[in-house]
Amino acid sequence: MQENDPRHQWSLRSSLDLPGRQEFDVMVRHVAPLPRPSVPGYTALDARYPGFWARPELALIAQNLFDRSHPEFGAAPTRSEIERGFLS
User: Fold this and answer.
1) 2 within a domain of the structure (yes/no)
2) Rounded distance between C-alpha atoms, residue 85 and residue 34, angstroms
3) Do 50 and 37 meet the contact criterion of CB atoms below 8 Å apart?
């Protein structure tokens, strides 16, 4: 383990095939806090629904559904945060 690695992290992913050739994917991940500089741990939920569109490259995607934003690294005064996002 490196000096500033999270003590633990995990992820859980599920892909469902729904009726009508539809799909739904969901992923939950957790990362423990970092010691130096202090960065709080977080748990994030992402989801993807390609739906019933004829073009397979189109999908609705939602990221970081548990929180509006969370930091992943860096010192508190200058670090940026990963924000909740919705894509299509």
Assistant:
1) no
2) 24
3) no
4, part of any domain? no
Q: Does residue 63 contact residue 72 with C-beta atoms inside 8 Å?
A: no
User: In the block, which residue shows the tokens 């005064």?
Assistant: 77
Q: Which residues contact 4 (CB under 8 A, 6 or more apart)?
A: 34, 35, 36
Closest CA to 30 of 39, 46, 43: 43
pLDDT, tens only, 1-36:
567 788 999 999 999 988 877 889 999 999 999 888
Mean pLDDT (the chain) is 85
Domain count, the chain: 1
Range of the domain at 19: 9-87
Has residue 66 been placed in a domain?
A: yes
Reported as type and span, the H/E element at residue 48 is strand 42-49
Neighbours of 6 (CB within 10 A): 17
